[in-house]
Amino acid sequence: MLSSSLEKYADYLRELWACQSSLGKAKLIAMIKKTLLTGVKPTGMPHIGNYLGAIRPALQLSHQPQYQALLFIADYHSLTHVHRAEELRSMTYEVAASWLACGLNPDQSLFYRQSDIPEIFELSWILSCFSPKGLLNRAHAYKAKLQENQEAGRSDPDYGVNMGLFTYPLLMAADILMFSADQVPVGEDQVQHLEIARDIAQKFNNNYGPLLKVPEFLVQKDSKLVPGLDGRKMSKSYGNHIPLFLPAPKLRKLVMKIKTDSSPPEAPKDPNDSLIFSLFKEFASMEETEALAAHYRRGISWGEAKEALFQAMDKVLAEPRRHYEELMADTQTMDCLLEQGAQRARAIARPQLDELRRAIGLGAMV
Length: 366
Ligand code: ADP
Ligand code: TRP
Description:
Layout: H1 2-18, H2 22-32, E1 34-40, H3 48-62, E2 67-73, H4 75-78, H5 85-101, E3 110-113, H6 118-128, H7 133-137, H8 140-151, H9 163-166, H10 168-177, E4 183-186, H11 191-208, E5 216-219, H12 248-255, H13 275-283, H14 286-298, H15 302-328, H16 331-360
Helix pairs in contact: 1-2, 5-15, 6-10, 6-16, 10-11, 12-15, 13-15
The structure holds adenosine-5'-diphosphate and tryptophan (TRP).
């Protein structure tokens, strides 16, 4: 019984593959690959923490053959707080160039600006009609604002809250549900948003049938937080970050600023208790890591350790940095790539939206 249905399935696959039309191939790819989707909010040039904690793992996943990856720039999400046109535009380019320089392959993955896919915004409205307001009242970014206002003794609990911030999770749900994503890799801070997306999809499906795919999330629980120059979590908001594509002399200068203790150069040091070593490991080979660990145990000056870290980082980052600078000097190339990505993404979004519109009762009777 099982083997006969498997045979039928294999026949079907053969038939599809034999079909030379690109439609047949696209269908086949959609059947056998899982859709991996993630969005990046433009906040300017990423830092080493963003690279090691988010960009590198997402790109590694996107290169796995079982996935069709959609990686996009969530520029309309930034509009909730970035209200200067030039700033939004340049941050968008910086993020796009960073992903491309780090190895995003725009032929293999769909790479687009969220704002270029109008279907997402129409879906966002549809979803808003299936989202109880209370669900969004509980979203953490909104709650954090309420708390901030309360602590500041403000009489208006919603002071400084625009509707974009309040409905942020809805737009994120539309980003995901538009493309029937199977898996969404995110940092832990985004898990609540994914739960909201799942909730809304289920509510919609309960009413109209299983039209929206309920996404799974991939949280990198075991991924360590990359420490910044002062030992706290590396973050733009702490000002302790190392921008990813600093020119080499500036990178060296920042690495030399990493906080260390005052132990003498000849004192043996524990590599596992060293911020410099924990960063070094991320950029060096296994042999280089073992060699530096041995040097720590014999005794190493912090200056030498920092120099080793700078060299290891520069070796990995020199080529992507060159690529980044090239892309930033020619934003038209990026516009072109993003436009092509948007066209491919819209070719998926449009029929999906049409189906949903029909299901909810819009348009003429057929
Ligand atoms: P920042 O704290 O600098 O504002 P974001 O919150 O914009 O950074 O981070 C974007 C993504 O980068 C997050 O999803 C998170 O997974 C990752 N990330 C940020 N900082 C770090 C860090 N120090 N270590 C590991 N991953 C990080
Ligand atoms: N909200 C996410 C962040 O701040 C970015 C984002 C927007 C996203 N839409 C998404 C992530 C869809 C995953 C899927 O990091």
